[in-house]
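Allow me, if you will, to draw on your knowledge of protein folds for a short while. Thank you for your consideration; the sequence and its tokens are set out here:
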Amino acid sequence: MEKTALDPLDRRLIAALQCDGRLSTERAARVLGLNVRLVHRRLAALLGSGTVRVVAVSPRGGDSTAMLLRIKVLRGKLDTITAALAARPDIPFIDMSAGGDEITAVLLAEGHRSRLVFRQLPATKAITSVIAQTVLHVYADATDWRLDALTEDERRALTPPSQPSRPPAELDPLDQELADALLADARVTAASLAARTGHPQSTVRRRLSALLRDRALVTHVALDPRGLGLDVDANLYLQIPPGHLDTAGRALAAHPAVHGVLALTGPSNLSVAVWLHDLEDLHRFITRDLASLPITSIDTVLVGHAVKRPGHLPVGG
């Protein structure tokens, strides 16, 4: 995808969509103090060009056990292995390292013993090693990341009320049909959904509102961060004493550069994903932002190509 520069108004509109993926043009204009026609035109350009996509994703939780896989691959075989992993529905996240010899993937497995991890990957000759770490806690993921372009009052006014988080309930057939319809485009109109499902618009509106209010479905804005001037994508694997792990995880989850924080099994017990402007910015993040935390070791891996992420919008490459 060609790199597209986004101006301050674009950034504010993207940040508004992060608050509410189904935000109306009129409400965005009212809260942000903008002309309705201007907002309509700019949102249409952002969404129509594919610069940003608003998709629906399942909330965190459920019965699956998430595992972070770090897979070392022989040079020349990376594309083949990556393509095979990307085709699997139980792998929602894949990064290729800039060095060209490592794949990072998130696997949603049933239970703690995965056939992929314990049999299939080790038996593949192109793979030289596999480190599989179970995710113990998610402090932040891609759906939590917010572009720092709104005031707190604006963000609060744009964010719809929701029920406290709870284990996701099983969806009935209509709710599941609505959820499936929003996977690729969470801004599909109620009229289109009603026509697709054969139910009245009033029913569709009510059920969709309940799905989002109860967080049985979460909207997510997928975009190429290079359009925001964030040219460095990196995964950092930190080793932190157990007594400080929760404090560090919460602090890093609130950092504006961080779009993912996972507590893991194994010696590198905290994984942190960041978007930064350049390598000097990454150096400052490591030497200054992380300096106050009791980190005993850091392994930094630059991402060369984001192969599969929520919204399936590729980055880099």
Q: What stands out?
A: The chain has a mean pLDDT of 90. The first strand starts at residue 52 and ends at 57.
